[in-house]
Amino acid sequence: LQKGDLVLFSGSRVSNNIGHVGIFIELDPSGESFSFIHASISDGVRISHSDEDYYRKRFRAVRRVLPD
């Protein structure tokens, strides 16, 4: 993972279709989770963590769109 990578989440727990996208910010010291910035319908632009229950269940992939 590198800053700026896209992190992809499903729109629901039962579907693998991508329904939400965030931008990777940093890896947590444990190396097991990460923080990302994204837009939320209810809270606007915010920073969340991949270990939050909602996102942990929906995480699908990481994609790099900018060259190293």
Structure overview:
- Helix content is 9%, strand content 49%.
- With 68 residues, it is mainly β.
- A hairpin with a 3-residue loop joins strand 3 and strand 4 (44-49).
- 12% of the residues are buried.
- The model has no long low-confidence stretch (mean pLDDT 92).
Unreliable spans: none
Q: Average pLDDT value?
A: 92
Largest sheet: 5 strands, antiparallel
Compute the CA-based radius of gyration.
12 Å
Give short descriptive properties of this protein.
1 helix; 68 residues; five-stranded antiparallel β-sheet; 9% helix; 49% strand; 5 strands; mainly beta
In short:
With about 70 residues, the protein is mainly beta.
Write the layout of secondary structure elements.
Blueprint: E1 6-10, E2 18-27, E3 34-40, E4 44-49, H1 53-58, E5 59-63
Antiparallel strand pairs: 1-2, 1-5, 2-3, 3-4
